[in-house]
Amino acid sequence: MNKKYLSFISIKRPLKFHTKFLVFLLGDINMKKKNTKPKDNLSTKNQAAQLVENNPLKEYHEKRDFNLTTEPQGNEEKTQNENKIFVVQEHHAKRLHYDFRLEHNGVLKSWAIPKGIPENTTDKRLAVETEDHPLEYAEFEGNIPEGQYGAGKVTIWDKGTYQTTVWNEKIIEVTLTGKKLKGRYILVPLKKGTDKNWLLLKGKE
Ligand code: MN
Fold first, then answer.
1. How many angstroms separate the alpha carbon of residue 91 from the centre of ligand 1?
2. Do 41 and 104 lie in a common domain?
3. Are both 118 and 28 inside the same structural domain?
């Protein structure tokens, strides 16, 4: 890759311009590799154009050239039906609660649930939205030391995969496949806007 291309794409420019330039750039790569793998290069070109158009990792991708770096491109290939991780962590902080986390767009969306996961369809459990956690957090167990945020013991209460039925601002509906938890669960925000309070409900079978 020519260095002048790299300095060119690092400058902030409108998205359309970037797209055109990327396609142009990949066209250039295609020409150089033409004799080796023309079909692969064509699909790479289409993928890259798509990534720039609609991807939550747009900025991450724009800053990197994956022909040059070995950094991961991320899970942009995942579809809605593919299994994603969920975890429930029992957290003995100042006050015991259960942290419910769902993999979404490369992070763990997180809610702290004081009374734990609902056991039947008439339970309504308050779920307070907390900050996104890295995916690796799904493996975490241990003691958060005194004085640190959330000090106390964390253990994995349940873990598994889930599928999404609906995910928007008004409702999140998922089907969990864990060791303890199996079936449909629904999260609904209590109020519109920036309120962090949700309800977690168990769906009917
Ligand atoms: Mn917690």
1. 5
2. no
3. no
